[in-house]
Amino acid sequence: MKPSRRYFAILDNEATLADPAGLVRRQQYPDGGFIDEGLHRDMTWKRTPLIVEWERAEATDDLVEVSEAEAERIIERLRERWSARG
Questions:
Q1: Nearest Cα to 66, choosing from 13, 16, 6, 26?
Q2: Nearest to 47 by CA among 26, 75, 61
């Protein structure tokens, strides 16, 4: 069975929901397990502790949950931004 996914935009001092600093997601499995991943500049998802840290109020960045459709728009924005910077 496929995991369900929740996406979160990363906001910091300069980033906004319209232009977030990054994107993380939680893949939740039916057995209760989960994997948290962040989108990297090479457009791959890699494990990250950011969501757990945010839940524990240990993160310096703020996370805002977004829909899958909004996550896709953010991915495209990040792809454009990161490819422009090389």
A1: 6
A2: 26
